Amino acid sequence: MTKVLILSVGGSAAPVVNAIKSGRPDYVYFFCSRGPKGSEHTIADPGDPCGDTRKIKCRECGTEQYIGDPKGKAIVVQAGLDHSRYEIVAVDNPDDLAECYHAVVGILDKIAEQYETDCEVTANYTGGTKTMSVALALAALMRERCALAVNVGPRADLIKVISGDIPVIINKWRISSEIQIDMARRAVADYDYAYAYQLFGEILQHPVDASLRAKVLRAAQLCQIFDLWDKFQHPAAGQLMK
Fold it and tell me: What percent of the chain has pLDDT over 70?
Protein backbone atom coordinates (compact mmCIF):
# COMPACT_ATOMS: atom_id res chain seq x y z
CA MET A 1 0.00 0.00 0.00
CA THR A 2 1.30 3.44 -0.95
CA LYS A 3 2.18 5.73 1.97
CA VAL A 4 1.47 9.42 1.40
CA LEU A 5 2.56 12.14 3.82
CA ILE A 6 1.22 15.71 3.90
CA LEU A 7 3.46 18.13 5.78
CA SER A 8 2.86 21.74 6.74
CA VAL A 9 6.19 23.55 6.44
CA GLY A 10 7.29 26.50 8.57
CA GLY A 11 10.55 28.07 9.61
CA SER A 12 12.19 24.95 11.06
CA ALA A 13 13.35 22.25 8.65
CA ALA A 14 14.40 19.64 11.22
CA PRO A 15 10.89 18.46 12.26
CA VAL A 16 9.88 18.12 8.60
CA VAL A 17 12.98 16.09 7.77
CA ASN A 18 12.48 13.94 10.88
CA ALA A 19 8.86 13.24 9.92
CA ILE A 20 9.92 12.08 6.45
CA LYS A 21 12.77 9.90 7.69
CA SER A 22 10.62 8.38 10.42
CA GLY A 23 7.50 7.79 8.32
CA ARG A 24 9.36 6.70 5.15
CA PRO A 25 6.53 7.74 2.80
CA ASP A 26 6.41 6.86 -0.87
CA TYR A 27 5.19 10.35 -1.73
CA VAL A 28 5.20 13.70 0.09
CA TYR A 29 3.05 16.81 -0.29
CA PHE A 30 4.69 19.93 1.14
CA PHE A 31 2.06 22.45 2.24
CA CYS A 32 3.90 25.77 2.53
CA SER A 33 3.73 29.55 2.13
CA ARG A 34 4.79 31.50 -0.95
CA GLY A 35 6.80 34.73 -1.12
CA PRO A 36 10.19 36.12 -0.03
CA LYS A 37 9.46 35.36 3.63
CA GLY A 38 7.59 32.13 2.93
CA SER A 39 8.72 28.58 3.62
CA GLU A 40 8.53 27.41 -0.01
CA HIS A 41 12.20 28.21 -0.70
CA THR A 42 13.38 25.89 2.09
CA ILE A 43 11.98 22.82 0.37
CA ALA A 44 14.01 22.45 -2.81
CA ASP A 45 16.03 25.62 -3.48
CA PRO A 46 19.75 25.21 -4.23
CA GLY A 47 22.48 26.25 -1.82
CA ASP A 48 21.69 26.44 1.89
CA PRO A 49 18.06 27.63 2.11
CA CYS A 50 17.61 26.02 5.54
CA GLY A 51 20.64 27.69 7.09
CA ASP A 52 20.17 30.06 10.00
CA THR A 53 21.57 33.37 8.72
CA ARG A 54 20.52 35.46 11.71
CA LYS A 55 23.38 37.37 13.35
CA ILE A 56 24.13 39.13 16.61
CA LYS A 57 26.73 41.79 17.28
CA CYS A 58 29.26 41.38 20.05
CA ARG A 59 28.95 44.28 22.51
CA GLU A 60 32.66 44.23 23.30
CA CYS A 61 34.33 43.95 19.89
CA GLY A 62 31.47 44.87 17.56
CA THR A 63 31.91 41.83 15.31
CA GLU A 64 28.87 39.95 14.04
CA GLN A 65 28.37 36.24 14.64
CA TYR A 66 25.80 33.75 13.40
CA ILE A 67 23.23 32.68 15.98
CA GLY A 68 22.92 29.21 14.47
CA ASP A 69 24.41 27.18 11.65
CA PRO A 70 24.34 29.16 8.38
CA LYS A 71 24.73 25.90 6.48
CA GLY A 72 21.55 23.96 5.81
CA LYS A 73 20.63 22.15 2.62
CA ALA A 74 17.07 22.05 1.29
CA ILE A 75 14.56 19.77 3.00
CA VAL A 76 14.35 17.34 0.08
CA VAL A 77 18.15 17.03 0.05
CA GLN A 78 18.29 16.32 3.78
CA ALA A 79 15.42 13.83 3.52
CA GLY A 80 16.78 12.12 0.40
CA LEU A 81 13.74 12.79 -1.82
CA ASP A 82 14.07 13.00 -5.59
CA HIS A 83 11.75 15.05 -7.82
CA SER A 84 9.44 12.12 -8.51
CA ARG A 85 8.53 11.68 -4.85
CA TYR A 86 7.17 15.06 -3.82
CA GLU A 87 4.96 17.99 -4.77
CA ILE A 88 4.91 21.53 -3.40
CA VAL A 89 1.57 23.23 -2.70
CA ALA A 90 1.97 26.87 -1.66
CA VAL A 91 -0.50 29.49 -0.45
CA ASP A 92 -0.11 33.25 -0.81
CA ASN A 93 -1.54 34.10 2.60
CA PRO A 94 -0.61 31.54 5.28
CA ASP A 95 -2.88 33.34 7.77
CA ASP A 96 -6.02 33.01 5.64
CA LEU A 97 -7.91 29.97 6.97
CA ALA A 98 -10.17 29.61 3.93
CA GLU A 99 -7.25 29.70 1.48
CA CYS A 100 -5.24 27.22 3.55
CA TYR A 101 -8.19 24.87 4.02
CA HIS A 102 -9.06 24.81 0.32
CA ALA A 103 -5.41 24.12 -0.55
CA VAL A 104 -5.36 21.09 1.76
CA VAL A 105 -8.73 19.85 0.48
CA GLY A 106 -7.28 20.06 -3.02
CA ILE A 107 -4.38 17.85 -1.95
CA LEU A 108 -6.70 15.29 -0.34
CA ASP A 109 -8.99 15.24 -3.39
CA LYS A 110 -5.99 14.66 -5.64
CA ILE A 111 -4.78 11.79 -3.46
CA ALA A 112 -8.24 10.20 -3.43
CA GLU A 113 -8.51 10.47 -7.21
CA GLN A 114 -5.05 9.06 -7.86
CA TYR A 115 -4.90 6.25 -5.30
CA GLU A 116 -8.58 5.71 -4.37
CA THR A 117 -8.45 3.44 -1.29
CA ASP A 118 -5.05 1.90 -2.02
CA CYS A 119 -3.03 4.30 0.12
CA GLU A 120 -2.24 5.27 3.68
CA VAL A 121 -2.42 9.03 4.19
CA THR A 122 -0.96 10.91 7.17
CA ALA A 123 -1.24 14.66 7.73
CA ASN A 124 1.51 16.06 9.97
CA TYR A 125 0.63 19.57 11.16
CA THR A 126 3.80 20.38 13.14
CA GLY A 127 5.16 23.10 10.85
CA GLY A 128 3.75 26.25 9.29
CA THR A 129 1.68 29.06 10.74
CA LYS A 130 -1.02 28.33 13.30
CA THR A 131 -3.59 28.88 10.56
CA MET A 132 -1.89 26.37 8.26
CA SER A 133 -1.79 23.79 11.07
CA VAL A 134 -5.47 24.34 11.89
CA ALA A 135 -6.45 24.02 8.23
CA LEU A 136 -4.48 20.79 7.79
CA ALA A 137 -5.82 19.24 11.00
CA LEU A 138 -9.40 20.28 10.23
CA ALA A 139 -9.33 18.86 6.71
CA ALA A 140 -7.78 15.61 7.96
CA LEU A 141 -10.46 15.28 10.65
CA MET A 142 -13.15 15.45 8.00
CA ARG A 143 -11.64 12.65 5.92
CA GLU A 144 -12.14 9.00 6.76
CA ARG A 145 -8.81 7.78 5.39
CA CYS A 146 -6.41 10.36 6.77
CA ALA A 147 -4.42 9.92 9.97
CA LEU A 148 -3.23 12.89 12.02
CA ALA A 149 0.29 13.29 13.39
CA VAL A 150 2.34 15.92 15.19
CA ASN A 151 6.02 15.97 16.15
CA VAL A 152 6.70 15.82 19.87
CA GLY A 153 10.11 16.80 21.18
CA PRO A 154 12.18 19.30 23.16
CA ARG A 155 11.49 23.01 22.79
CA ALA A 156 13.96 25.79 23.39
CA ASP A 157 11.00 28.18 23.64
CA LEU A 158 7.28 28.42 22.85
CA ILE A 159 7.92 29.34 19.23
CA LYS A 160 9.00 26.13 17.53
CA VAL A 161 9.96 22.50 17.99
CA ILE A 162 13.70 21.96 17.63
CA SER A 163 15.56 18.86 16.43
CA GLY A 164 15.24 15.56 18.30
CA ASP A 165 11.48 15.37 17.84
CA ILE A 166 9.45 12.29 16.89
CA PRO A 167 6.18 12.17 14.88
CA VAL A 168 3.31 10.85 17.01
CA ILE A 169 -0.03 9.67 15.61
CA ILE A 170 -3.00 11.50 17.14
CA ASN A 171 -6.20 9.65 18.03
CA LYS A 172 -8.53 11.78 15.96
CA TRP A 173 -11.55 9.52 16.41
CA ARG A 174 -12.45 10.92 19.83
CA ILE A 175 -12.59 14.43 18.35
CA SER A 176 -14.40 13.20 15.24
CA SER A 177 -16.88 11.33 17.43
CA GLU A 178 -17.74 14.47 19.39
CA ILE A 179 -18.42 16.32 16.14
CA GLN A 180 -20.70 13.53 14.93
CA ILE A 181 -22.49 13.31 18.29
CA ASP A 182 -23.28 17.01 18.04
CA MET A 183 -24.60 16.48 14.50
CA ALA A 184 -26.70 13.55 15.74
CA ARG A 185 -28.20 15.69 18.51
CA ARG A 186 -29.31 18.24 15.94
CA ALA A 187 -30.75 15.46 13.77
CA VAL A 188 -32.77 14.15 16.73
CA ALA A 189 -34.01 17.69 17.44
CA ASP A 190 -35.28 17.74 13.84
CA TYR A 191 -36.86 14.27 14.30
CA ASP A 192 -34.49 12.84 11.70
CA TYR A 193 -33.84 9.63 13.61
CA ALA A 194 -32.59 7.73 10.56
CA TYR A 195 -29.75 10.20 10.01
CA ALA A 196 -28.88 10.23 13.72
CA TYR A 197 -28.78 6.42 13.67
CA GLN A 198 -26.42 6.56 10.69
CA LEU A 199 -24.10 9.01 12.46
CA PHE A 200 -23.96 6.92 15.62
CA GLY A 201 -23.28 3.84 13.52
CA GLU A 202 -20.32 5.53 11.84
CA ILE A 203 -18.82 6.35 15.24
CA LEU A 204 -18.97 2.68 16.21
CA GLN A 205 -16.86 1.76 13.16
CA HIS A 206 -13.80 3.34 14.77
CA PRO A 207 -11.83 2.77 17.99
CA VAL A 208 -13.33 4.76 20.88
CA ASP A 209 -13.11 4.17 24.63
CA ALA A 210 -15.50 1.67 26.21
CA SER A 211 -17.63 4.20 28.13
CA LEU A 212 -18.29 6.31 25.03
CA ARG A 213 -18.96 3.21 22.93
CA ALA A 214 -21.65 2.04 25.37
CA LYS A 215 -23.39 5.45 25.31
CA VAL A 216 -23.25 5.69 21.52
CA LEU A 217 -24.55 2.15 21.12
CA ARG A 218 -27.52 2.92 23.39
CA ALA A 219 -28.23 6.17 21.53
CA ALA A 220 -28.09 4.35 18.18
CA GLN A 221 -30.57 1.74 19.40
CA LEU A 222 -33.00 4.40 20.62
CA CYS A 223 -32.77 6.27 17.31
CA GLN A 224 -33.47 3.04 15.44
CA ILE A 225 -36.55 2.43 17.61
CA PHE A 226 -37.90 5.96 17.05
CA ASP A 227 -37.21 5.71 13.32
CA LEU A 228 -39.13 2.44 13.04
CA TRP A 229 -42.00 3.86 15.10
CA ASP A 230 -42.25 6.95 12.86
CA LYS A 231 -42.42 4.63 9.84
CA PHE A 232 -45.33 2.78 11.49
CA GLN A 233 -43.23 -0.36 11.88
CA HIS A 234 -44.52 -0.73 15.43
CA PRO A 235 -43.95 -4.49 15.87
CA ALA A 236 -40.27 -4.14 14.88
CA ALA A 237 -39.86 -1.16 17.20
CA GLY A 238 -41.50 -3.13 19.99
CA GLN A 239 -39.08 -6.01 19.53
CA LEU A 240 -36.10 -3.67 19.94
CA MET A 241 -37.58 -2.23 23.13
CA LYS A 242 -37.66 -5.62 24.86
Answer: 95
